[in-house]
């Protein structure tokens, strides 16, 4: 089985671990060996910026992008940058894992579409519009008081410009009203890169059934998040809870709506799937739960590839 994982925080993990630790082999949940062992076709690498923990978020984000490129270059026998679907095909034919560059925190744009376009030119192909703080684009789902607060005018402009450029709009972390505004404004499918189902686990980071249906109507996907609090009430991140969420999202939005967004290296260590090399455990659990091979294929890879194909452009200079 091959996988497309829509979200990991491994670049942050590497930055924290220091210059001596690299992507080839490390103690984190994602490294080249683990990606190979688990069957990665494409991995999305987030540049996560904590706005309250950072003097200059834009500069910090650019430093993280530099680290991403250094790691891809150092591991060029196994990894290659991907900007669109054609790149994934070409990398795969060369037996290389595709690395997509993403940003988790639209605040790094500093309210300026010029920064968005420059990030596109730098290779960023997905942006999570907010993290857990309000920013120039909109409001997060970290506090109940933000739930009814939607996208700002600038947030709507960002969605429009991302549609035009060929970037994937990500609503994970966004307020409920923000979700509905993206659904209204976006002319392309969009994603919740790392979120689960709220009807299964009542957490504001998860999507309601109404949202799942709307996301499905727009052709989008939800990447199943392995973080324990979003999966259930167990003490650890359990595979059976992942299967429960997958079943529910498939029942509400259809199997075409389910993808993977592990959140590896951004989540606590008590994981039944402790690193990417163990992704086969999820496949086995889905088989045991009665999913067909074609359905498992969609969850692990094909649905995300559809988004890549539909949203990303083959024109890399705009
Ligand atoms: Zn996140």
What are its keywords?
three-stranded parallel β-sheet, 12 helices, TIM Barrel, alpha/beta, six-stranded parallel β-sheet, binds zinc ion, 318 residues, Pept_M19
Question: How would you describe the overall organization of this protein?
Answer:
The protein is of the alpha/beta class and 318 residues long. It has a single domain, classed as TIM Barrel (Alpha-Beta Barrel), CATH 3.20.20. It has 12 helices and 9 strands. The strands form 2 sheets. Strands 1, 2, 3, 4, 5 and 6 form a 6-stranded parallel sheet that branches. It has a 3-stranded parallel sheet with strand order 7-8-9. Helix 5 runs parallel beside helix 6 and helix 10 packs across helix 11. Bound molecules: zinc ion (ZN).
């Amino acid at each position: 089985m091959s996988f497309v994982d829509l979200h990991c925080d491994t670049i942050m993990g590497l930055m924290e671990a220091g210059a001596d630790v690299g992507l080839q082999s490390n103690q984190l949940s994602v490294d080249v060996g683990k990606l190979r062992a688990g069957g990665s076709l494409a991995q999305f690498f987030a540049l996560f910026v904590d706005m309250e923990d950072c003097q200059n978020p834009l500069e910090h984000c650019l430093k993280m992008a530099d680290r991403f490129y250094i790691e891809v270059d150092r591991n060029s026998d196994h990894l290659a940058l991907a900007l669109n679907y054609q790149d994934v095909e070409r990398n795969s034919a060369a037996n290389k894992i595709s690395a997509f560059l993403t940003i988790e925190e639209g605040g790094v744009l500093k309210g300026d579409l010029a920064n968005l376009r420059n990030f596109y030119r730098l290779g960023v192909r997905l942006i999570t519009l907010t993290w857990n703080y309000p920013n120039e684009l909109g409001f997060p789902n970290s506090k109940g008081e933000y739930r009814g607060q939607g996208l700002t005018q600038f947030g709507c402009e960002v969605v429009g410009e991302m549609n035009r450029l060929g970037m994937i709009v990500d609503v994970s972390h966004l307020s409920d009203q923000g979700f509905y505004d993206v659904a209204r404004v976006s002319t392309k499918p969009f994603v919740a890169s790392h979120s689960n189902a709220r009807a299964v686990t009542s957490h504001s980071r998860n999507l309601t059934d109404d949202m799942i249906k709307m996301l499905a109507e727009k052709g989008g996907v939800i990447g199943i998040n392995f973080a324990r609090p979003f999966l259930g009430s167990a003490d650890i991140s359990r595979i059976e809870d992942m299967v429960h969420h997958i079943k529910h999202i498939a029942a509400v939005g259809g199997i075409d709506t389910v993808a993977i967004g592990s959140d590896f290296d951004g989540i606590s260590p008590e994981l039944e799937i402790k690193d990417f090399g163990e992704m086969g455990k999820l496949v086995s659990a889905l088989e045991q739960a009665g999913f067909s091979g074609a359905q498992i294929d969609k969850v692990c890879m094909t649905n995300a590839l559809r988004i890549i194909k539909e949203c990303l452009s083959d024109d890399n200079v705009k």
